[in-house]
């Protein structure tokens, strides 16, 4: 059986290419995504959509990152015990955020990335406000406020840069989800994910 042809940019099957929906957004904050190798193989790889849609975003694949550029303007998006809520930051504190490091993986894999990289442990941590709800309707999450990497980035940038323009990143995300629901069929979706 021949493999399905894939778009070289978004890595989706050509019949489900999302490129026409992916924006090209500028941001003041640089986004550095550290992706656990297991995530790269997932069909619903939202980190890839973030990198394609943000001009100042890049992705590093691996478990250890000894050469990360870390300076005083670098923050880690992670809900550790000392993390500050993004909603609590003053304008001056928001302006101080120059680079945001985001861990991409299950919670277990994200904690492993943090554990394996002591430089990350030393960074000031920022967390999303409580009550954020995911639009990721085809995934069972361990917690109701568990978000995809893309959703977390959109919320974080929207709060740091005080702009709603990052919502445009969710257009291809919604199309991706709708495509998955259509592929599984309404009955299967309702049985496994419906309310």
UniProtKB/TrEMBL annotation:
User: Which InterPro entries does the UniProt entry name for this protein?
Assistant: DTW, DTWD2/TAPT
EC number, as in UniProt: 2.5.1.25
Q: Where is the DTW domain?
A: 3-185
As for family, the record states: Belongs to the TDD superfamily. DTWD2 family.
- Asked whether the UniProt record includes Coiled coil among its keywords, one would answer no
- The identity of this protein, by name, is tRNA-uridine aminocarboxypropyltransferase
Q: Which UniProt keywords apply?
A: S-adenosyl-L-methionine, Transferase, tRNA processing
What would be one Pfam family of this protein?
Answer: DTW
State the source organism's domain of life: Bacteria
Which BP terms does GO give this entry?
Answer: tRNA processing
Which GO molecular function terms does the record list?
Answer: tRNA-uridine aminocarboxypropyltransferase activity
Enzyme class comes to: transferase
């Amino acid at each position: 059986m021949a493999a399905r042809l894939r778009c070289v940019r978004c890595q989706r099957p050509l019949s489900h290419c999302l490129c026409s929906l992916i924006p090209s957004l500028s941001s003041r904050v640089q986004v550095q995504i550290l992706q656990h190798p297991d995530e790269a193989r997932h069909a619903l790889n939202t980190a890839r959509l973030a990198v394609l849609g943000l001009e100042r975003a890049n992705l590093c694949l691996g478990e250890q990152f000894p050469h990360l550029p870390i300076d005083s303007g670098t923050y880690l998006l992670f809900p550790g015990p000392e993390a500050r809520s993004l909603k609590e930051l003053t304008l001056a504190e928001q302006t101080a955020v120059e680079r945001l490091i985001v861990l991409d993986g299950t919670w277990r894999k994200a904690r492993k990335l943090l554990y394996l990289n002591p430089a990350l442990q030393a960074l000031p941590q920022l967390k999303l406000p409580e009550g954020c709800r995911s639009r990721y309707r085809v995934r069972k999450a361990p917690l109701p406020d568990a978000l995809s990497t893309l959703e977390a980035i959109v919320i974080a940038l929207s709060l740091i840069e005080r702009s709603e323009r990052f919502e445009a990143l969710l257009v291809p995300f919604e199309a991706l989800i709708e495509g998955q629901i259509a592929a599984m069929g309404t009955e299967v979706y309702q049985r496994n994910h419906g309310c």
